[in-house]
Write a structure and sequence with these properties.
The protein is an all-alpha fold and about 270 residues long. It is about 70% helix and about 0% strand. It has 9 helices and no strands. Helix 4 crosses helix 9.
């Protein structure tokens, strides 16, 4: 039979706060680790999805000699440093992007947990951030945003957001359609300045971010304009070169996902 604790045996307020702090730190660390593992899978998605290759087979292998990567060399981030950035079998260099994607995804997952805590909203934001990482690097490499990510992502995000906030269903639906329509009109008016991939990506952004989509678009255009001008000034790009806009929308979405409501409240307080 379970014994009921007496009142004097209950943990004190200080002890309870200490336990909760350590639990919070532990869950944050787990979020970070989970992000690095998901980031390892995202490296596969980034490389294989645009090529129409299977995401499950063959297993992880060297892109140069196609030798299978040993499981203990496939540990996120650590494996790359153990191998010193080179294939164990052929000695060819392994891109720094692999650990960078893993570390970035881990940091984003930790950020999502830090803002939303142990909640269903955290899981939605983690999935959203993972999609944004894949979109960013695929757009950089191939100048396109895969429908296989944004269209299912939009549907799942819309269902999840409305399920968690049924009274605000209209907000997520309106944000998805409004953000997408805004980029569509802009693309029609500014030929070559906005692709259909960006338009579809805005659907997913709105389905997740709701009213904070305004912040995501503002930050995306602000950073995109500055980034494009900087690349041209450094002569890394010319005015005729294509510059993917998906990464800037992704950056704006991360900012909106983490501090979007605070930014909106600050703006509204200053405007009134």
């Amino acid at each position: 039979m379970m014994r009921v604790l007496e009142a004097e045996e209950w943990p004190s307020h200080a002890e309870f706060s200490f336990l909760m702090t350590w639990l919070d730190a532990y869950l944050g660390f787990c979020s970070l680790l989970l992000g690095t593992v998901i980031g390892s899978f995202l490296n596969v998605v980034i490389y294989r999805l645009p090529e129409g290759l299977s995401l499950s087979s063959p297993g992880s292998h060297c892109p140069s000699c196609e030798s299978p990567i040993r499981w203990y060399h496939n540990v996120p981030i650590v494996g790359w440093f153990v191998l010193r950035g080179r294939c164990k079998d052929c000695g060819e260099s392994i891109s720094w992007r692999y650990p960078a994607v893993e570390a970035l995804t881990g940091a984003l997952f930790l950020g999502a947990y830090a803002v939303y805590g142990p909640s269903a909203r955290t899981l939605i934001m983690m999935a959203f951030f993972a999609a944004l990482v894949a979109i960013t690097f695929i757009d950089i490499d191939h100048f396109r945003i895969p429908d296989k990510i944004v269209l299912p992502g939009t549907l799942v995000a819309l269902v999840a957001s409305i399920a968690l906030n049924p009274s605000r269903w209209w907000e997520f639906l309106l944000a998805a359609l409004g953000g997408s329509l805004f980029l569509l009109v802009l693309g029609l008016l500014w030929r070559g300045g906005m692709g259909m991939g960006d338009v579809k990506m805005a659907l997913m952004m709105g389905a997740v971010l709701g009213s904070s989509t305004v912040v995501a678009l503002f930050v995306g255009f602000l950073v995109g304009g500055f980034g494009g001008a900087l690349l041209i000034a450094l002569r890394l790009k010319s005015r005729k070169d294509r510059i993917p806009f998906g990464p800037y929308l992704a950056f704006g979405s991360v900012v909106a996902g983490l501090v979007g409501h605070q930014v909106l409240n600050l703006y509204l307080s200053l405007a009134t």
